[in-house]
Automatic annotation (TrEMBL):
Species the sequence originates in: Helicobacter pylori R018c
Top-level lineage group: Bacteria
Keyword annotations of the record: Signal
Protein name: Outer membrane family protein
Signal peptide residue numbers: 1-24
Amino acid sequence: MRQEKYFLTSSLSLLSFLLCPAEAFDYRFSGRVENFSKIGFNNSQINTKKGIYPTESFIDIVTLAQVKVNLLPKGTENHRLSVSLGGAIAAIPYDKTKYDINQANGKIFGSIVENFIGGYHGYFFNKYLGPAYAGTSQSASYHARPYVVDTAFLRYDYKDVFGFKAGRYEANIDFMSGSNQGWEVYYQPYKTETQRLRFWWWSSFGRGLAFNSWIYEFFATVPYLKKGGNPSNSNDFINYGWHGITTTYSYKGLDAQFFYYFAPKTYNAPGFKLVYDTNRNFENVGFRSQSMIMTTFPLYYRGWYNPETNTYSLEDSTPHGSLLGRNGVTLNIRQVFWWDNFNWSIGFYNTFGNSDAFLGSHTMPRGNNTSYIGSEISITTRHAGMIGYDFWDNTAYDGLADAITNANTFTFYTSVGGIHKRFAWHVFGRVSHANKNALGQVGRANEYSLQFNASYAFTESVLLNFRITYYGARINKGYQAGYFGAPKFNNPDGDFSANYQDRSYMMTNLTLKF
């Protein structure tokens, strides 16, 4: 009888808590449905032998939702504790690439779209990388997962002095877009109206994507292959993670940051970033200037020696289709001006050596990402990313990213835009030029791009984005689109000859928030 009474009392207490959570806690639910389309203007036939590919065309529908629950009672001061959970699911009603034929063998190549909308290649990114005719055990099309739980984390903050996150959450790391699987902690011992000192540590053991044109299951960004290991065997990999330590000192409009990124047994990458902002609280009235310079100095391990091939596992690897080497330098300069509702930006990005081999190939410097977010009408006036444009607009057959992070490549870009009530516009131009390496060998590709972007907010919850782009890519001798092995400068059959490929396209994106 006593046990029954105890059970009844406990049940009533639990029921009371569940039925009346608003009295002590609060929660917020948000989400959106997006319709995204990309129409490629190059409809050439696939020829994997010669590295000839079209630009993909497809339409998708993505639903994203998230709930955040504050775990401390309302009115709690100084402390904040919350948990968030969310995910995304996608459908592809139209995919022009699904039945494309490979002219090199006459077989169906299969969907390239399912490589990034539902992309799944195993945790170590070593599975299901083949075309449709490779069969169910190797083709990405047979293993697509158009859903992902991209948000599942606990967050704690104390006064803006100390805090941490742990789980899966939206990354705010300079070299990562998407969601991080890991943890981060910050400590801010000093903060006044004009000065601030902040220390930050983050660790990543996976990256996932949940955007309107990317649904990607989490994968290890920098897996390490054991000595003598087989890349196709997941048991031969170890994920030591990749990590970062940053120290930021802020004084009025100046931010000075030193950072140190590292992946055990793979690379160490110290660097610094300076940002000067004349008007941090700019609200589209008056003048604002924001200047940034950033450098990264990656130092690579050699890896283990393979006597059969006379190569080292890391030093002689070929990220981005170029030899890794032992070191490199990345220089990133960006200047943005605002006058009321108008803005102009100019930027330079230069890789010396294969300096973005791991940071770039697996995570990419954060850009504006307007092609797959576009959920705010003010996107053309905000340049929060390290790079002031969206560089994810190459053909999917060549990895989607443009040439900016290729080895020994100089990129210049500029843009002008404005916002007028519910309408925003943006004109952008870019030139990427491949330089020669220490051996006199020219880099992978020269690219040219000119685009027009427009956005219109029908209401606060319904937005439309449009983009049309000219994009030309000249693939240099020794390289191929879709091929990321060692360059073949001496190829007698001409399959690695220089060629020009059109990557022009049109994009639309309709967003409904709820």
